[in-house]
Specification:
The structure is a single chain. This protein has helices spanning about 40-45, 95, 125-130, 140-145, 145-160, 175-185, 200-205, 220-225, 240-250, 270-275, 290-300, 320-325, and strands spanning about 1-5, 15, 30-35, 60-70, 80-85, 120-125, 130-135, 170, 190-195, 210-215, 230-235, 255-260, 280, 310-315, 335. It is α/β, with parallel strands linked by helices. The protein folds into 2 domains: about 1-150 and about 285-335, Quinone Oxidoreductase, Chain A, domain 1 (Alpha-Beta Complex); about 160-280, 3-Layer(aba) Sandwich (Rossmann fold). The strands form 3 sheets. Strands 3, 4, 5, 6, 7, 14 and 15 form a 7-stranded mixed β-sheet that branches. A 6-stranded parallel β-sheet has the order 10-9-8-11-12-13, sandwiched between helices. Helix 5 crosses helix 6 (about 175-185) and helix 8 packs parallel to helix 9. It starts with a strand and ends with a strand. Keywords: Metal-binding, Oxidoreductase, Zinc.
Length: about 350
């Protein structure tokens, strides 16, 4: 099969022929119909993820058709249209049995722990726990945009942040995760403020339901307080500076949801956290069993993840697009059609 192969960190990958994956016990192999290009893939290419072993094939946001079914992967057949969370949980540990597959200690992540979806085929382990059947009306490009950024934002806003109609929500960072969060929070009836350095990203945020947009600067906290102060703040980027601004801007008893991965050594204003009774909430992905509610909202036209897709590229165009992320993240979501 054709795949994007990383031989050295930071060196432009190549598209070449490699062996196809095999459907082991409990797993399936998918023919990749579409896969998202995410900044996490760039971090992997740069050598920021200790799970990656070279040579490596990245890619973790995917949708496709089942091409092979391994022994024990019951309930699935060749030709089924599916997607999967980027966290493939084991289904047997304490956390999985309680329904918390997104924090499974035995999880495998395509494109990180093993070869991913920047290829014509990819394996999905623990298929009975991790596969999500796609509605017939949903195209693969839209489905691929759900697996990491949109699903992560849906759980962060709706299930972890518990955003309610009429609340003020401030979203820091308007990449794929942030724009998804803007759309979801607006659909839930919140008044959304989007913050970013990129005017194009802010413009796109307005089209997705942001009531206010703010250019990132030292005056962000003052501007958010002028608007009344958010009930909920979301760091969709992962920045120590953003964390401080988010906590400073929150109204008393507000909730901060941390989605972006933070560098080591970030210091929190714990005194403000205590004195204002603020809540600090981490959110990491979304389990497959939680997808139906999100898919129903897409099917009924309440959510439009397809509107966030701004570019579709080929496998051959992917190495250059991955390398271009060194210069910043373009507005919207890029999807690869192998």
């Amino acid at each position: 099969m054709r795949a994007v192969v990383i031989e050295e960190y930071g060196v432009l990958p190549e598209v070449r022929e490699v062996p196809e994956p095999v459907a082991g016990a409990g797993s399936v192999v998918l023919k990749v119909e579409a896969t998202g290009l995410c900044r996490s893939d760039w971090h992997g290419w740069m050598g920021h993820d200790s799970d990656i072993v070279l040579p490596h094939v990245p890619g973790h946001e995917l949708a496709g058709t089942i091409a092979a079914v391994g022994a024990g992967a019951s309930g699935w057949e060749v030709g089924d249209r599916v997607t999967t969370p980027f966290i493939c949980a084991c289904g047997e540990c304490e956390q999985c049995l309680e329904g918390n597959q997104q924090v499974c200690p035995n999880q495998l992540q395509p494109g990180f722990n093993y070869w991913g979806s920047f290829a014509e085929y990819v394996a999905v382990p623990y298929a009975s726990v991790n596969l999500v059947r796609l509605p017939d009306t949903m195209d693969f490009t839209t489905a691929a945009s759900l697996g990491c950024r949109f699903a992560t934002s849906f759980r962060a806003i709706h299930q972890v942040g518990r955003v309610r109609p009429g609340e003020q929500v401030a979203i820091f960072g308007c990449g794929g995760v942030g724009l998804s969060a803007v759309m979801i929070a607006a659909a839930l009836g919140a008044e959304v403020t989007a913050i970013d350095t990129n005017p194009a990203a802010l413009s796109l945020a307005r089209t997705q339901g942001a009531t206010h947009t703010v250019q990132a600067s030292d005056s962000v906290v003052d501007r958010l307080r002028e608007l009344g102060g958010p009930h909920v703040t979301v760091d969709a980027l992962g920045s120590g500076e953003i964390v401080q601004q988010a906590l400073q801007a929150l109204r008393p008893r507000g909730r901060h949801v941390q989605v972006g991965l933070l560098p080591a050594g970030v210091n929190l204003d714990v005194g403000r956290l205590i004195g204002q009774e603020l809540s600090w909430l981490g959110s990491h992905g979304m389990p497959a069993h939680a997808y139906p509610e999100m898919l129903d909202l897409v099917a009924t036209g309440n959510l439009h993840p397809d509107r966030l897709i701004t570019r579709t590229i080929t496998l051959e165009e992917t190495p250059a697009a991955l390398a271009a992320l060194s210069n910043g993240t373009p507005a919207g979501v890029t999807v690869i059609a192998p």
